[in-house]
Design brief:
Order of helices and strands: HHHEEH
Largest sheet: 2 strands, antiparallel
Oligomer: single chain
Shape: elongated
Helix content: 40-55%
């Protein structure tokens, strides 16, 4: 690793560490998350053929209306969302992560996980989703 790349990596790390308390101190309200979930699901139904049918068959939906990823060699990710069962949000969740490698930029994505069986939903709620979740990339 060259000296320049090293200093850029250290600068990015320090920048992210300094921003972390600000990011962690802000948490969306239940109303904001619920509104984001509704907007995300409406957009998905309007943009993806067959999404309405799939979502209607799902026993539960874990929706993250805004997950942010950012990185310059060292990256981070954070988002808040909720679990919707029977059309109502029953629980709230957050996702966070760090990564290291070739990366540069900022990205916002929406994530929808559909639990297609009662067993899959129950296992997730108990902390063991295994591989019983239907996922698909979507901007």
């Amino acid at each position: 690793m060259t000296t320049r790349k090293f200093f850029i990596s250290v600068f990015a790390l320090l920048l992210m560490v300094n921003m972390l308390p600000v990011a962690l101190s802000y948490a969306a309200t239940a109303g904001e998350i619920n509104a984001g979930i509704d907007a995300t699901l409406n957009d998905l139904k309007g943009q993806v053929i067959g999404a309405s049918d799939t979502l209607a068959k799902a026993k539960g939906l874990l929706v993250f209306p805004g997950t942010w990823k950012a990185g310059i060699t060292l990256g981070g990710q954070y988002g808040e969302g909720g679990l919707q069962v029977g059309g109502k949000v029953t629980d709230y969740y957050s996702v966070a992560g760090l990564s290291l490698g070739f990366q540069l930029g900022v990205q916002k994505q929406r994530v929808v996980l559909a639990f297609m069986s009662d067993e899959a939903l129950s296992r997730f709620q108990q902390g063991d989703a295994g591989n019983s979740v239907l996922t698909a990339p979507w901007p």
